[in-house]
Structure formats: structure tokens, C-alpha cells
Amino acid sequence: MHLSTEEVYNLIKLKNPKIGIATIYRTLLIFEEIGLVYKHNFDDGYLRYEILSPYSNEVHQHHHLLCKQCDKIIEVKEDLMNSLEEIIEKQYNFEIQNHDVKFTGICSQCRDKENKNGNKET
Questions:
Q1: CB-based burial of residue 37 (10 Å sphere; 0-12 exposed, 13-18 middle, 19+ buried)?
Q2: Does the domain made of 58-122 have the CATH classification 3.30.1490.190?
């Protein structure tokens, strides 16, 4: 799940109505610093946070598919960049520690809606 600060605030406010949004901002910053959450920028005007598993040895982040119509964020679990990273590291003598890949397009549900409405683009 990829929640904005405001979405986290609204969820926590249900349990603790007296909490302030500044507390949420500070807490998310601390969680990011200690590696409990990862901050994403999906170019939608919000910073979004994802909880990192303490049991994961994964160094790289997974990839994301961003639907430009409904703003759905779909996680791609496979790390498809390993071979490309090896080429880049060798060619440029550069040690890659992480990467951030975002694919933008139209999800299957939005395409299905377009097809049913007869608005299919060619």
C-alpha cells in the first residue's frame, strides 16, 4: 500500500482524533530515516510511503505501474533490472545500490471501460 501523509493522518485520526498532522509528518520522517518506510514520488503531487518488511533482505525497491486514468499504483514484484544493472556497472565502473523504476500507462480496468464505452483509442 502506498499512502500519502494525509491518508496516514486520516487513518490514525480515526483511532486518535487529537493527533496533529505535524506529528504524522515528523513520525514518517523518522520512520524513513530508520528504514521502516520508503518514500515514493509518483508524480501525482503527493509523497507516498510504503512499509518496508523488517524480514526482507531485499536491497532494491520493486517497480511500479502507474495508471494515468484512475491513479492506481500496481506493484511489480519481480526485479527486472538485474541484467541491465550488471551491464551498467561493468561499462561505467559504477556500483549501483538501488534504482527507482516507474512505468506509466493505462491499467486493464480502465482499458476495459474504454472498450465497453466504445472509446477505444487506436
A1: buried
A2: yes
Domain locations in the chain? 1-55, 58-122
Judge contact between 107 and 72, C-beta under 8 A: yes
Per residue of the chain (122 residues), give pLDDT as tens: 788 999 999 999 999 999 999 999 999 999 988 888 888 888 778 888 988 766 655 555 678 888 889 988 888 877 778 888 899 999 999 998 877 778 889 999 999 988 888 765 54
CATH class name, domain 1-55 = mainly alpha
